[in-house]
Amino acid sequence: MNEAQTEINIPHLFRCPISLDLLEDPVTLITGQTYDRSSIEKWISAGNFTCPVTMQKLHDLSFVPNHTLRHLIDQWLHLGSQYHPSTNNNSATIDYLASLKNNLESHDSTLETKLKALEKIKVLSDEYCSFRKSCFQQLSFLSLLLELVFGLCLSHDSKLSENYLEFVELTLSCILKLLPIVNLEPLNIIKDESKLENFIFLFENGTSSIKTSLCLVIDYSTTVSQTEDLCHVLGNSQKLVHEIVQVVINQNSDDDDDDEVSMAAIKALSALSSLESNKESLVKSGAINGIIRYISRCENGQKINLAPLAMATLKKLLVLESGKEALVNHVNGIETLVKMVFKVCNQECSESAVGILSIICSDFGSAREVAIGAGVLSQLLFLLQSQCGTKTKTKARMLLKLLRSKWSEESM
């Protein structure tokens, strides 16, 4: 690495996990981890047949050049020659960011020019700097990026081109980089009818990456009071909520992209359910069905999951009678929850499952019958004999007592 490169604060993603130097020839293993070619070749030639980061055994020692990351590094190095992150020249910083903004705003800029500008913004927003944060805020970058994605006159009767989808993906990626470091009030432009229509249209017709990003934007809309009205608008769009639910229902467990978007969708449903005024819309749009399907897949061994968050969301929706009825009427709803009662590896899930079953079994005789038929009594006894927490055991005893008393009443 030359002297100019060592002076620059290298982004974490651009460093080889083995050498910690800038990636010169990034290659990706079957595990999905990226290393510099020379470093991983030395690692393997030394007799190490595991991934250095994950320690997974490498059944396939081949690796694939990571051209996307190489391109981003090249862009970053080119950027470094024009803009040095360690300089204190605030005026130059503002001027450089303003030039990027101008490239994005200009009607004369080609799509290629705009994509390059977005890549540079993504790199700059990756490296935290308080002054740079204020620059993004001062130059209203979030408003501009939101306008670029949702403010265009999209033809809702035609298929989106691959180039446009790439542009949307990268713009949304930049938006997500900015959300943690700027004021979120500009998100409220999505409340505008035409922009909301575009939001939904992109969700319906976008790639998995676009859907994931849109779900994460929804998640952010509940983090501050400034965007509470936006959360209400999004949550009461049954068309949008239905699309989010379909993402969860249609997940292909063998597809990593589907796993990612499905988890983002669960985050979105959880975020929307935090607002009381959204709950009826969520239930009507099938959220209970989607959540049960997600929990069922997690119970069947999905490696990375948000089952605790999904179950917490389900419990929030049960404050509504319609929510309880949707759960009781679900063909596999009660059985799925019974299977989650005794989860040694996830006590949070066990506690949630017991709590939800207590609510449902207290109000619905049919739910009690199904739960008992599905083996809930033995599941609860196993749970009580396990090393679960005191709070979980207390809830388990209460549910056992409820089931026994109700069973006795109904047998008389």
Automatic annotation (TrEMBL):
CDD domains found in the cross-reference section: RING-Ubox_PUB
Keyword match Repeat: yes
EC number: 2.3.2.27
Molecular-function GO term, any one: ubiquitin protein ligase activity
Catalytic activity: S-ubiquitinyl-[E2 ubiquitin-conjugating enzyme]-L-cysteine + [acceptor protein]-L-lysine = [E2 ubiquitin-conjugating enzyme]-L-cysteine + N(6)-ubiquitinyl-[acceptor protein]-L-lysine
ARM repeats by residue range: 243-287
Keywords from the named record: Repeat, Transferase, Ubl conjugation pathway
Enzyme class: transferase
A Pfam match: ARM_PUB
Ranges of residues in domain U-box: 9-83
Bilayer-crossing regions: none
Presence of keyword Transmembrane: no
InterPro entries given in the database record: ARM-like (IPR011989), ARM-type_fold (IPR016024), ARM_PUB (IPR058678), Armadillo (IPR000225), PUB22/23/24-like (IPR045185), RING-Ubox_PUB (IPR045210), Ubox_domain (IPR003613), Znf_RING/FYVE/PHD (IPR013083)
A GO biological process held by the record: protein ubiquitination
Pathway annotation: Protein modification; protein ubiquitination
Role according to the record: Functions as an E3 ubiquitin ligase.
Protein name: U-box domain-containing protein
Native source species: Trifolium subterraneum
Upper lineage: Eukaryota, Viridiplantae, Streptophyta, Embryophyta, Tracheophyta
